[in-house]
Structure formats: structure tokens, C-alpha cells
Amino acid sequence: MLAGSRSRAVSALRPLTRTITCKASNFYTDPSKNQEPGVSTSPSISPEQREILDRALRVDQAGEIAANWIYKGQFAVLGRDPQVGPLIQEMWDQEKLHLKVMDKLQLQHKVRPTLLSDVAKAAGYALGAATALMGKEAAMACTEAVETVIGEHYDDQLKDLELLPSSHPSIPLLRDIVKEFRDDELEHLDTAVEHHSQRAPGYALLSAVIGGGCKVAIELCKRF
Predict the structure, then answer these.
(1) CA angle, residues 152, 160, 171, in degrees to nearest 5
(2) What is the pLDDT of residues 93-148, one digit of tens each?
(3) Could you tell me where the beta strands, DSSP code E, fall in the chain?
């Protein structure tokens, strides 16, 4: 019942088509685009709109920090496993790219980073290593639970970002980056399910605890 409900929920999150032909993140990884206004400037917006932007980037950067350390913990335990080691490395590499982009967005828009970054690192590594020690399926269950929450979070965030003006090029670009990263996270979710996340011992409880923890972390990082 839980697995079926989650699959339906995730399907509802998944976009029908890609709306851009090239990755929005390329604007932050291609040095030739460093001086473009959408990458190098921030909009002049109201205090209320600035709060929406600040909270979005603060929590997204914190989330990518935590994700990197989750995969670092998983890789420390399962990195040599011929089945899941390469998968963890591939997903971790994507998260490294996400964090690189979020770090640049944080500097571009002069957003205060979360005060909880060290907590995110420690908690992420502990979660990744602990679930990996429980077995490959538990590590995948961790990924599934985390990415389910993050997919929902990014969808909610896109609604908030619609309140920001599209007249400044950085805002449409930011929306496209959030869409791109959401799609990446949902691909990670698919990978976890394909590699038997739902066979993990205590799957339902494990998923509920991890998912609930992620939701609490999101709210804390918005504020602190």
C-alpha cells in the first residue's frame, strides 16, 4: 500500500516533457557565460520577494550539502560493491554538480548560508553510512525516501518562485535550474526503486523516519 501510494505521488511530480533543450546549470558551469546578467547580477525586488528568494536558495544549498554527505557516507561503506558502488558514485557526482551551482547562486544573490551546514554534513554522513551498513537495500531506501521529499519540495518551491518577477533574467534561469535538479532527484529515486529499495528491512518505518527528518530539516534551514 505504501509503495503504491508513493509511486502514484512521484508520478504526479514528474514533468511530461523537458521545457528546455540544454541544461540550465550549464550557465553556471560554463566559464564563457560568467558575465551574462542572469548569472552575474541579482534582481531589485521587494523585501517580501527577497525573503522568498533567500529562503529558497538557503534551503536548497543546505540540501545539496546534506545530499553530498549522505552519498559520501554510503560510498565509504559500499563504494567497492560492484553492483551499487558505481551507482552511488554516479548519483554523488550529480549532487556535487548541484552543490557547485547552488554555491554560485548563493554568492550571486548574496544569500546568507544556513547556520546548520555543519549539522547537515554530520547528519548526512551518519545517515548515509548507517543505512549502508544495514545493507544495499537500506541504502537505496534512504535514497528513495530523501528524493521523494526533495521532489515534492522542489515542486512547492517552483510555485513560490512564480511570485518573483520574470523581468530579470536570473529568475527564469533559477526556475529552470530547480526543474532540472528536481528531475535529477527523481531519476535518483527511480534508480533506488530499481535496485530494490522496497526490500529493505523495516522499509515502511525506515522511509517514514527518514522522510520526516528531511521535512523537519527543510523547515529549519529556511529559518536558520
Answers:
(1) 110
(2) 999 999 999 999 999 999 999 999 999 999 999 999 999 999 999 999 999 999 99
(3) none
Question: What is the separation of C-alpha 61 from the centre of its chain, rounded to a whole number of angstroms?
Answer: 8
Q: Label residue 15 left, alpha or beta by phi (over 0 means left) and psi (-120 to 50 means alpha).
A: beta
Burial class (CB in 10 A: 0-12, 13-18, 19+), 157: buried
Place of cell 541579482: 42
Q: Which residues of 41-71 are buried (b: 16+ CB within 10 A; e: fewer)?
A: ebbebeeebbebbbbbbbbbbbbbbbbbbbb
If DSSP codes are grouped into helix, strand and coil, which group holds residue 45? coil
| Mean predicted confidence (pLDDT) in 43-68 | 95
Task: Tell me how far CA of residue 12 lies from CA of 25, 146, 224, in angstroms.
Answer: 24, 17, 31
Tell me the C-alpha to C-alpha distance, in Å, between residue 50 and each of 34, 44, 153, 164: 23, 9, 19, 9
Name the pTM for this structure.
Answer: 0.85
